[in-house]
Structures are given as C-alpha cells and as structure tokens.
Amino acid sequence: MNSLNSTLSLNTTFVRPPFFVINGFYYVPHAKYYYVFLFFVFAVSVLGNSFVMFIIYTERSFHTPKYMAIINLAVADLGESTALIPNLIAMFPFGTQYISFDACLANMFFVFFFSSLQTLTLTILAYDRLVAICLPLRYHAIITMPAMTVILTVVWACDSFVLILMVSLITRLSFCKSIVVKSYFCDHAPVFFLACNDNLVNRIMANVNIVLLLYVPFILTALSYVFIAGALCKIASWEGRFKAIKTCSSHLILVVICYCPIIGIYIASMAGALHPNARIINTSLSFAIPPMMNPIIYVLNTEEVKEFSKRLFSRKKITATEINR
Fold this sequence. Notes:
Number of strands: 3
Strand order of the largest sheet: 2-1-3
Helix content: over 70%
Strand content: under 5%
Largest sheet: 3 strands, mixed
C-alpha cells in the first residue's frame, strides 16, 4: 500500500478509478424537498414532451418543417431530463453516490449532448421565425422539409462530434488525487480538475464546447431577433406588428427560459464568490426547468396546438359519454 501511494505521488502510474463519488447535494440543507420537486419536474417534462411528440406525429397538418424542429426540441428536452434527473433521484436520497468510470462518461455525454441540442434547436426555430417575418413570400421555398432535414442532420452530427471528442479526452487523464466530483452529475470541468496530469487540452476543449454550443447559438438567436425587430418596424399597422410578434412569442419565451438562468449564474460568479450550494441549485434548475416549460408554452401559446388539443379532448369526452350510456 505504501509503495502504491509513493508511486501515485510520483505520477509514474496512469490511474483510472473504478468509480467516482458525486457529492453535489450532500451538503445542501433540506435537499429531500428538492428531490421531490425534481421528481415533479421530471414527470411533467416526460408527459409534456411525450404529448407534443404524439400530437405532431398524429396530426398531418403538423407535418411541416417548423414542427419537425419542434419535435426535435421535444426529443432534446426528453433526453436531457432522462439523462439527468433519474440519476440524481437515484443517487442522493438512497445514498448511492457512486458512479462507475464508464457510466460517468456516458452521463457526461448525454447531459451535455441533449442540453446543447436544445440550444441549437432554439437557434433553428429562430431562423424559421426570421424567414417567416422577413421573407414571408419566400418562406415555403426556403424552409422546406428537405432543407430542415439537412439542417437537423448537420446539428446532430456537429453536436455528437464535439461532445464525443470532449468526453473521450477525459480518458487520457490520470486520477491519482481525488475521486470526489463536486457537482450533481458527472460535470466536465469538476471531473477533469481532479486529474493529476496535464489537463490543458481538456480546458481548451471545455472552452470550445461553450463557444460552439452555447455562445454561437445565443448570438445567432439574438441576431435573428435584431433582424426581426427591424422588419417589424417597417410594418405600418400596429395590428400587423402584433400579429407578427404573436408568431414569435412562444419561441421568445423559450429562449428567455433557456438562457436567463445561465446568464444569471455567470453574472453572479463575476460579481463575487457564488456559494457552492447556490451554484449547484441554480445550475441544476437551468438544466431541469426548460425541458418542463417548453411543451407547456408551446401547447398554451401556439394556436394550432391549442385547437388540436381541444379537439382531441372533446373527442375523448364524447367517446367516454357514449360508453357510459
């Protein structure tokens, strides 16, 4: 044992631990209430996104490029919730904070993959709204099913490539110091900071990931709305402006819900030392809340979805009444 410790201290042995310990919520007071809240969030996310996918699949009028992007958003939301929340609920309330090395890398990949897919899909939907408002006469010529298929395929491929590269670079690290990950899942930075060999490549890759999959989508989305605002100013009537704004309202709310928590965390971090518990709670909410809210907002704010939902529940009500008779 002494010889092993001396070997590790000299960094002459490559160490891959059999497992990591996730201690994210261990020091958060009254965390059990937060787990109940997360379970509720997960249930609503699964039901809501499953409902959105169901209505888009069953209603032929929704088989359009825009709704193809929306169903992609629902898949991203469902994937993100499933990759993150069940593991959280299984780990901390039941005291199973251990996660194997391979499972940790899988968890890291899927959480980041689906959260990045969410921001990229919001950018695609921003482009859809940009064309609809700025080039309405050419909308159906530009936003076609083949074009949307190509866009979504490229997004999935780029997202997969960046994150496979990011996660695979973890395997070059030696973990001879600690195996305690100071986060609520196998977060990238808290894992590679544990390494006792050079992690410069991992730090560079983390920055590349943030720039490509967070900053660039946000900037493109913001620029889309700058051009949309310019187009709205050219509309003479307030009625026309309101009608155009209404077509963007659902998407704009989703963008605010997605990016505001992340921006808030960065601002709080720059303003001063953010308490670890506050950082963990805020970050977990920024991952958990958007997948729950996205389907609710689309069902409540999109006229076509509301009409279909009313017809669907009306048919079920009539069928139930006839059966009771």
